[in-house]
Design goal:
The structure holds two protein chains of two kinds. By secondary structure, chain A is mainly alpha-helical. Chain A contains 24 helices and two strands. The model of chain A has no long low-confidence stretch (mean pLDDT 86). Chain B is of the alpha/beta class. Chain B has eleven helices and eleven strands. Chain B has a six-stranded mixed β-sheet, with helices on both faces. In chain B, strand 6 (151-154), helix 6 and strand 7 (177-180) form a beta-alpha-beta unit. The two termini of chain B are 36 Å apart. Classes of the chains: A mainly alpha, B alpha/beta. At the A-B interface, helix 17, helix 20 and helix 22 of A face helix 1, strand 7, helix 7 and helix 8 of B.
Chain lengths: 494, 318
Amino acid sequence: MDTILSVVGALPGGWTLLAALAGVIWGILGGAMPGLSPSVAMALLLPLTYGMDPTAALTMLASVYVGAEYGGSIPAILIKTPGTNAAAATTIDGYELARQGRAGEALGISLMAGFVGGMFGLAMLVLATEPMAAVALAFTPPAYCALGILGLSVIASLSGRSLLKGLIAGILGLMIATVGTDPVSGVSRFTFGSPDLLSGIRPILVMVGLFAVTEMLSQISAPAWDKANRRDTRLKLPSLSMWRRLWKSQVIGCVIGTFEGLTPGGGGSIAAFISYNEARRWSSKPEEFGKGSVEGVAAPECANNVVTATALIPMLSLGIPGSNSAAVLLGGFLIHGLIPGPMLFQKAPEVVYGLYGGLFAANVLMVLVGLVILTPCIWLVNRPKPYLIAFILAIVVSGVYATDTSLTDLWVVLGMGVVGYGMRWVGMPVLPLVLGAVLGFMVESNYRRSLVLARGDHSIFLQDPVSLGLLVAAVALTAYSVWREYLKPRSKDA
Amino acid sequence: MMRLAATALAVGLALLPAPSMAQAKYPVSTVTLATHSSPGGGSDVFLRELVKHLQPILGINLAVANITGGSGAKAMAEVAKAPANGSIFYATTPTYIQTTLLSKPEAGYDKLDPMMIVFLDPTIIYTRAESPHKTFADVVADARKNVGKAKWGAANPASLERIAFEKLNRMIGAGAAIVSHEGGGDLMINVLNGTLDIGVGEIQELRGQLEAKKVRLLAVLGEKRLAEFPDLPTAKEQGVDLIVSKFRGLAGPRGVPDDVAKIWEDAIKQALASPAYKAVYAKEALEPVAMGREDARRFTARFAEDVAISLKELGVIR
């Protein structure tokens, strides 16, 4: 109770509120810009915070994170390009809805789901930091490996018509993840001497190529699709009956997002994909998924915004940054002479509670900013196609290049665009490839780390209780999905 | 050359107001200090703090530029081809040597001329508070007794810390499993949850856990004890001659005149002596060494040679 009162007392005023607003706006822009990740958007603002009061500075950085994770869904829905890793799952149904002329509705749902997720995550952060930090510590290398495998098991239900093609795509993704420094020996793999490839191929580049560039290539080669979204050019917030339909998927998103946020590595993307999958399983209308389901937008968007708050738990209470974004925030603490860790809550409680208050404000402001900018965004993507495609390609290319001024990155994106186009041509799903590229490194590095620890004995994966539980879940999930997708007699929807 | 908005922003913000009476003898009015780390990263923080204390002494504009990408390759290339008139320097760390050895950057460390080594970063071995090992000597004795049982962790696979543990493994014949990670945080989780017996890293990364008394420091991998932890013995004192010298310095393009290097050396020495700066770097447990040009060149060449040999021994490079 004391904690809640302290947070209420720390609700921001004046400068901190302004910092939250600036952070949210910048974050939404950065998140919506394909190629710019939330952590880069945060890092760009970091120098500005050097001279600020610590609470305002940290609130601004955390607000960028909140805004960016939401902002990633805007291009995911409107132009089938996730602005952030975690928004990849949103493209499936979000873009389908947009094509059916329900872009405004999809954007409204993702905005409100993001708000619900952000608030739920904040509640967990405020109320349950300590028990949650213990969960983060329970993750050993075998457990991380198992978590990655659980994430990969979603491939079974994202493969569309052909499981074989899905598996091929997944393996392509895993292959992409092997580029870079070997996680155990340190040998450079498939870098061809290029220092740009030493740290591997960032999954966001794969996604931008596979989604944005491929979509643009298909659109210019396809006859003009009827302008379905003319019908719906305004943002539409979910109605009461819509809320009733969405509650289940949001609960799923909240629970999964909470736990994924605690476990560094996969973060928002695993949370989003697993939530999407579970939402479909528990939905009363599973057949709509993939064809424009509102729940398919709500679940992942809720989950990835929960992560913006729960990812701070290991960072604040253990001093361990679980993601790049948390690492930038950690940098923000250090610059102000604050050391995150078990003692932070005693040494600088005013900053911690101030940050909580700032996060609360950021989530509210996110909705307000969303209400203002989303209608113009819909207008923007309804411009004539040639202009739109040129505009999007220009944004994508500059976003990718600006992050590291690397031409290699640009070639990767364009190359992936061509690969994606080819895959579409042969009817191979791209999502398994994305999952492989996102999770491959985590699975491989922790698999090998575990074996180094166990001296080659695979039973370590069964002895670790967390790992065992996750592996059983993965097997069950795969078996169920394969049964439902490929073996179950098709009565209605065949 | 055109810079991206990010760099421009960082540069713009780092430009501190210039004193009007710039020293006549320095050849240029603005010096760019380039780093491969992004804002908030290790070298970035080092440079920004250094600039604060150096600015009044040098009396010229000092701008920090974050040239990220390619693990330092981009920053090295940019500095190597810049004019050698003292207008640009690169903040060196072991990274620039490792990147050169591990890949084929456009310009490697050998295309730059070390001007100074400012600090050495102490490396320490630690364990969790609940660990049965009270000293590093305990760890060594235990590992010798139970050959093939010990589990040690280092931050990154091609890091100096991993090289150090591989050396230790050979020195004491422990046959320990050495697990590399994705950086210090990742490693710390596995030391804290007892997966690993010991970890090796930097004091700064452990600060939060140290305050909470959740980790125990076992040894400093340096020549002498740290001023901040006078009770923490070195590895050498505990019978194992294991030393890691991570450094922070400055290097320029080849051909920077000696008198320019001299101005820097004097200014940095003066800055290091100021109580205000001292307070800052003492808190980070940095050891000021202020090696001048000749020493820095020798130190760097020797360091690169050692790392190259170790990486070859590990089979990381051919």
